[in-house]
Amino acid sequence: MRDTGCSRLRGTPTGVDKTRLSLKICEDVRNREGHLDRSVLPPYDDKRKGCINSRVQLVDFMDAFLSRFVFRRGLSTAVQSYLARPFSRRTSGQHRLLIYYNPAEISFVQVYPFIAWRRALAQAYGTQIRAVPVDRFLNQECAMHRQADTTLVGPWFTTSPDLLSERLAHMREVNPKAVIGFLDSYAANDLRLAKAVDPYIDWYLKKSLFKEREQHLAAFCGDTNLTQYYGDLYGISAEPVDWQVPSSILAKLRLSPNFLTAPQFLGHFPKGQVPKQAGRALDMQTRLGKKGTPWYSAMREDALQRNNALPGVTRSPAERVNYKVYMDEMRRSRLCFSPFGYGELCWRDIEAFQTGAVLIKPDMDHLDTLPDLYVPEETYLPVQWDFSDLEDVVQRALADDDLRQRLAINAYERCADYLSGTSFISDMSFLFEPRPHQI
Predict the structure, then answer these.
(1) 349: left (phi > 0), else alpha (psi -120 to 50), else beta?
(2) What is the Cα–Cα distance from 425 to 265, expressed in whole angstroms?
(3) Phi-psi region at 387: left, alpha or beta (left = phi > 0; alpha = psi -120 to 50)
(4) d(CA 438, CA 202)
(5) What is the pLDDT along the chain (439 residues), one digit of tens a residue?
(6) Which DSSP symbol is given to 87?
(7) Hey, which residues does 97 pair with through a beta bridge?
(8) Which of 208, 218, 338, 434 makes the best surface tag, with the fewest CB within 10 Å?
(9) How far is residue 348's CA from residue 215's CA, in Å, rounded to a whole number?
(10) Which residues contact 106 (CB under 8 A, 6 or more apart)?
(11) C-alpha–C-alpha distance, residues 253 and 198, integer Å
């Protein structure tokens, strides 16, 4: 579980009306896809109260239910089996997309938008989507990639490079015309598995990339740019780690959406409903986890101490709370302080944008993300990586109501525009084109 200073709720809440819940999920899907032609499947007649009354709604319900709840603990594997069902009979213009996914929350962020926008993808590229746990691929228990036009593979970062190379080599051998993409969902901005996958893949997808792409070839002390910077800052020594990233991978690097497209956010940025800054009682939301590796703990402890030393600033208490309380507190906060985690991107960045709390965060100007949510003085207020200017930035923000409202509006609207539009469809177009060397 990610360390945010709150306790995440797991599983379907008790006492929830399951019929109302299923219909609400279907409504979320319809709201995102209302501009599409939904007449391709005829309705069937069932007048029972609360029943899903069309085959379209049934498919929507199953896919949405899967995407929101299949990876929660204790859920039946039947829903997983639904999305892993065989491809239907191939038709003219059909493009089969297979996703071998890791069930970790951070990894599913890259998978969920393909499910959420599946009908728009079908209209644009004839896409038919299936998803299978990546362990079945690694353990040679699934061969659906033989039938796929595009396959995305997203293992966990601890997967053996030798095993990954072996399985991808076999995939390429049995389906040489298929496009193969690698899903790197990992927090850190290194490319530690690039050497293993480069000979076999066409595209390498990641939630953030260095603007200067050649930085991905560098060897950092302690293995990432953050371990090197904060290790040097706090006197924590570490040997350089060279992932031996091949330069040939640079041309294959592509951005995939950041945390914005996670299930808990997609559908929850209604257009024109930017939360107001007025009436907020708390100056800054600062619930932060700090347990971890030495450099991470030192950085987070320093961030919290500097925050606690700010004169006259009200902030959230230190104890852990559940997610509902955490988000309610965010809605009552003028600012949200979000130092880096093990990577630069943090869930709380999007939680701040969603609730209208102005994001204060170490400068993100070295990274590209999709969509571009980190625009200094437009969507967030940057601070130095060593937090040396934190007090000045916080005091300026608290003294300027218009600045805070402008930043909150800009950040919210950027999120809402991406989620309510079809930019994801064009952003992923490269996955549905012929292999680069076959064009």
Answers:
(1) alpha
(2) 18
(3) left
(4) 11
(5) 454 554 333 333 333 333 343 334 344 444 443 333 333 333 333 343 344 445 445 555 555 555 555 444 333 466 678 888 999 888 888 999 999 999 888 898 899 899 889 989 999 999 999 999 999 999 999 999 999 999 999 999 999 999 999 999 999 999 999 999 999 999 999 999 999 999 999 999 999 999 999 999 999 999 899 999 999 999 999 999 999 999 999 999 999 999 999 988 988 899 999 999 999 999 999 999 899 999 999 999 999 999 999 999 999 988 889 999 999 999 999 999 999 999 999 999 999 999 999 999 999 999 999 999 999 999 999 999 999 999 999 999 999 999 999 999 999 999 999 999 999 999 999 999 988 765 4
(6) P
(7) 129, 150
(8) 434
(9) 26
(10) 2, 185, 186, 187
(11) 11
- DSSP state at residue 386: T
Amino acid identity, position 344: E
How many CB atoms within 10 Å of residue 193? 22
Comparing C-alpha atoms, which of 290, 286, 285, 312 is closest to residue 301?
A: 290
Torsion angle of C-alpha atoms 202, 205, 210, 212, degrees rounded to 10: 20
The closest of 211, 281, 260 to 379, measured between CA atoms, is 260
Q: What is the DSSP string of 285-332?
A: E------SSHHHHHHHHHHHHHHHTSTT--B--SS-EEHHHHHHHHHT
Task: Specify whether the CB–CB gap between 337 and 362 falls below 8 A.
Answer: no
| Residue 279 region by backbone torsions, left for phi larger than 0, else alpha for psi between -120 and 50, else beta | left
What is the rounded distance in angstroms from the CA atom of residue 378 to the CA atom of residue 373?
A: 9
End-to-end, the C-alpha distance of the chain in Å comes to 43
> Which helix H or strand E contains 99, and what residues bound it?
strand 95-101
- Which structure tokens are listed for 350? 């999007």
Tell me whether residue 291 is exposed, middle or buried, using C-beta atoms within 10 angstroms of its C-beta: 0 to 12, 13 to 18, 19 or more: exposed
SS3 356: coil
Q: Are 374 and 403 in contact (CB under 8 A)?
A: no
Residues in the chain: 439
Stated pTM of the model: 0.85
